[in-house]
Structures are given as structure tokens and as C-alpha cells.
Amino acid sequence: MQSVTVSPKFQVVIPQAVREQLGIEPGQKLQVLAFDHRIEFLSIESPRSLRGFLRGLDTDVPREGDRV
To answer: SS in 3 state form for the chain?
Structure first.
């Protein structure tokens, strides 16, 4: 288990192994969430990077006759 220390300015350093595993780059924005008694960081994806991520999704949905 990795651990970090909070600095007097409330900063932490994400360990190198974790940065490499998650592909975190310098300057990347992360969303911070407080959940129960833990802190979670979520990568903020740009709309451009999300383009095409649903490619291949089956869009054939059975519909009622009046909803076509």
C-alpha cells in the first residue's frame, strides 16, 4: 500500500507507480470528490477525447408504433 504525506500547504504527491499506471500527465486536470472518509480523484476528459467512444453500440431499440 502506498502512502503520501500532506504538506503544510495541503499538497500531496501522487506516487510515480500510480501516475504511470493511470497515465496521469503534468498539467492534467482531476476532479476531486469526498466520499465517506476518502478522497477520490477522477480524470476530467475533454469532449474531444470522448468522440467516438460509443462506436459499435447497438442503437436498434424496439419502439412503440407512435414513437417512431
So the answer is: CCCCCCCCCCCCCCCHHHHHHHCCCCCCCEEEEEECCEEEEEECCCCCCCCCCCCCCCCCCCCCHHHC
CB neighbours of residue 43 within 10 Å: 13
Kindly give the confidence (pLDDT) of every residue in the chain, 68 residues in length, as a single tens digit, with 9 standing for 90 and above.
789 999 999 999 999 999 999 999 999 999 999 999 999 999 888 788 778 888 888 888 888 878 76
Q: Does the global pTM surpass 0.70?
A: no
CB 13 within 8 A of CB 4: yes
In the numeric block, the cell 500500500 is attached to 1
Name beta bridge partners: 30: 43
